[in-house]
Amino acid sequence: MKKTIVVVGFLGLLASGSWASETFFKKGQKGWKFWDKVDSPAEKWSDSDFDDSAWKEGQAPLGYGDDEIKSTISYGDNKEKKHPAAYFRLEFEVKDHDHQVLYMMVRYDDGARLYLNGTYLGDLNTPKDPPPPGAYTGKSLGPGVLDGYTKFVLQKKGLLVKGNNTFAISVHQGSASSSDLFLDAEFLGISEKEFEALQAAEKKTVTGEEKTDEKKTNTDEEKTEKGDPE
Ligand SMILES: [Ca+2]
Q: Would residue 226 count as lying in a domain?
């Protein structure tokens, strides 16, 4: 995985001229706002113009129950009855809102719902028929998911605006007594050419640095390999 991160940084350095790529925000990003109270935030919490001045601020990874956490959030007073969800917002600057590929990576536990400038993008490991916003997912993560980043390309056009944008995500606990909650994410705007190069580099990383002691990463690696036509 280390090599993958280097490649991403390299792409960021190429951000100039017409072949521009942009790292909107990166893993370990500072400036995340979060709401970790028992009640859900106000209805429009994912909107760009929502007033999050009452929210706390921290650096990713955010959550609890994992050694990698940089900013610990609260689950309440009772570890057997943890808050069902936590809410996160991140403002980020966009120079070019017309990139060919919007590439997002999210590491989460146990489920998540994603929004960009108030538009619902989709969910990860939450029930098909969504319960009320503050519900537990009722599903634990399959092997390999927690240790890897779920990677996807946002297909919808017109999601970004030039200037200030807001990524919002609710992260849902699997159950009231689950020990951990985790969030980290990265978001890039790149060309199709760069996307292909990124996929090829990841494939190389997978074959060149196969881990023998961590079978848990297999799911993520297989996904990367299948996604590459070569
Ligand atoms: Ca959990």
A: no
Ligand 1 (ion): residues with CB under 5 Å are 109-110, 174, 178, 180
Q: Quick one: pLDDT at residue 1?
A: 36
- Spatial strand order of the sheet with 111-116 comes to 56-58, 32-35, 85-94, 163-172, 111-116, 119-124
Tell me whether residue 19 is in a domain.
no
- Ligand 1 midpoint to CA 69 (Å): 13
Mean per-residue pLDDT of the chain: 80
Instruction: Give me 216's structure tokens.
Output: 């848990």
In the chain, the number of structural domains is: 1
Task: Answer yes or no: is 208 within a domain.
Answer: no
| Residue 66, domain CATH | 2.60.120.260
Q: What is the pLDDT of residues 179-208, one digit of tens each?
A: 999 999 999 999 999 999 988 888 876 654
Q: Compute the distance from residue 155 Cα to the ligand 1 centre, in Å.
A: 29
